[in-house]
């Protein structure tokens, strides 16, 4: 890991949340179950052979002996099935400040900051020469949270850093970082369009991607077209 990432992690530590909320993993659709094989058609019963009228009612002397049917073998008790293995313990919650290998996560550093610290976090990124790459959102309706995610790229070193903040879904407000990174202006407008997040202090949060009269936010999970 580079010394600059280690230094960033130290500077971010005072801005990070003290306790992480465990969020579920991204939902992956389960594959459809394989169709059951069609049952084989029942074998046709053999047609009954008509009785020979020449022997009906006649007594046949010395009928051939018939071997007795053997007694059924006693049933063998099935071996007991082994007890199922105990479920694996849940994974520990993620750390607020996490250094990653890029090939594992697509990031070098990931931080979850307190919502009040997003501007201070942007100032750290600016001091270290990072450029804003994206601002987006994530909806967690079961937890009552919205998440704002800020992605940054350093053009000289190629390092990628993301920090995020979680806010109440029923009052989604967070400060704009557009005064530190003017390029965040349109990213925040787009995130406001799709998630309804109010970036306090933004110059203009009128609809950007949606119609001017839009009153809906289509990337919220309870949105219905």
Account of the protein in words:
- With 225 residues, the protein is α/β, with parallel strands linked by helices.
- The chain has a domain at 3-17 and 93-200: Beta Polymerase, domain 2.
- 16% of the residues lie in helices and 18% in strands.
- It is built from four helices and seven strands.
- A five-stranded mixed sheet has the order 1-2-5-4-3. A two-stranded parallel sheet has the order 6-7.
- The mean pLDDT is 85.
List keywords for this structure.
16% helix; single chain; five-stranded mixed β-sheet; alpha/beta; 225 residues; Beta Polymerase, domain 2; elongated; 7 strands
CATH topology of the domain at 3-17 and 93-200: Beta Polymerase, domain 2
Compute the separation of the termini in Å.
Answer: 46 Å
Number of H/I helices: 4
Largest sheet features: 5 strands, mixed
Can you say what the CATH homologous superfamily of the domain at 3-17 and 93-200 is? NADH:ubiquinone oxidoreductase Nqo5 subunit
Number of E-state strands: 7
Strand order of the largest sheet: 1-2-5-4-3
* Low-pLDDT sequence parts: none
The helical percent reads 10-25%
Strand composition percent: 15-25%
Radius of gyration: 35 Å
pLDDT averaged residue by residue: 85
CATH architecture of the domain at 3-17 and 93-200: 2-Layer Sandwich
């Amino acid at each position: 890991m580079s010394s600059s990432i280690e230094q960033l992690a130290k500077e971010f530590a005072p801005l990070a949340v003290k306790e992480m909320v465990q969020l579920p993993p991204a939902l992956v659709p389960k594959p459809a179950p394989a169709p059951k094989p069609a049952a084989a058609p029942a074998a046709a019963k053999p047609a009954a052979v008509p009785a020979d009228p020449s022997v009906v009612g006649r007594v046949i002397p010395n009928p051939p002996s018939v071997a007795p049917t053997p007694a059924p073998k006693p049933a063998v008790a099935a071996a007991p099935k082994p007890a199922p293995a105990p479920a694996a313990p849940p994974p520990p919650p993620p750390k607020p400040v996490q250094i990653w290998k890029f090939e594992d996560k697509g990031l070098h550093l990931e931080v979850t900051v307190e919502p009040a610290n997003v501007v201070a976090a942007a100032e750290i990124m600016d001091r270290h020469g990072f450029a804003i790459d994206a601002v987006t959102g994530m909806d967690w309706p079961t937890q009552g949270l919205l998440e704002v995610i800020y992605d940054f790229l350093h053009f000289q070193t190629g390092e990628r850093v993301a920090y995020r903040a979680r806010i109440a879904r029923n009052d989604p407000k967070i400060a704009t970082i557009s005064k530190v990174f003017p390029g965040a202006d349109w990213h925040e407008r787009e995130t406001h369009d799709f998630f309804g997040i109010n970036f306090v202090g933004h110059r203009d949060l009128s609809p950007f991607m949606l119609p001017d009269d839009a009153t809906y936010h289509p990337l919220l999970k309870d949105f219905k077209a």
